[in-house]
Amino acid sequence: MLTPTQKQTAQSIVNLFETGVVLGDYGSVTVIPGDTGHLTFGRSQTTLASGNLLDLLQRYCTNDGARFGARLSPWLPRFAATDLGLDNELCLHNLLRATADDPIMRETQDQFFDEVYWLTAARIAANLGITSALGTAVVYDSTVHGSWKAMRDRTMAQSGSLAALGEKKWIAAYVATRRAWLTNHPRSDLRKTAYRMDAFQRLIEQGYWGLELPLVIRGAEISPSTLRATPPGCYDGPQPGTRSIALQSPLARGLDVRLVQLGLSEQGIPIKADGIFGQTSANLLKQFQAKKGLPATGVADAALIGHLVE
User: In Å, how far from its chain's centre is CA 262?
Assistant: First the structure.
């Protein structure tokens, strides 16, 4: 049985693989050319094509406290129909990014990814006789990334069973087998993910079977302090209308910026709602103001914020 810290560490390793941040990027929206999953979202990157993204969004929208539930619900039929056109719906992508600021979405993602991926991986590991934190992390990674069963069977055929080899040798053989498969995969996007196995290989070589902290994975620190931090890119303020938003140094960031950007997106402005008011945001705001017959200042005052933010 893994401790809560070991579980969080294993999940953080996969978060780094999936979104490049220890705690996961709750607002990450990606569409990778050639990826059969198509539109991908969230802390552990769940996909449109699998149907899991629909499941996640339905859970969120049915929660009475979901801040963006009413705005997201009209999109659900297209998710249910696996409408691949959603890959190109920039307004939807911005809405998904904005949901990361809602604690209910973050909690929904935590529960969802635990149920869909972590508990499945923990059950698979236990049934196979894997007890170490590192071994469980390897299984979890393959559960998220895909093709666990095929690689398990290939490892057994090429190297032997876990019972015959022992857990540590079998996990090392599995990592080597999976790396070879990824490296030679016909899909270029999967070939690029062989780094996942390289990271596990280094942990195996260093003997970190208990995932003892601190660890450095792909240049990122996993430690008690980073595990307790606020997820990056999530904002709980300032509230809209409490300040004017303009281009400044350092750049204005926060919930109000994100919601203004989302409002502009819903008005047809091709802006990314990342919560950072940079030069591009200022220029696009000027375009919107000119279109509406307003002074093109690039400054969002209280009146304009009130117009853009519901």
Answer: 19
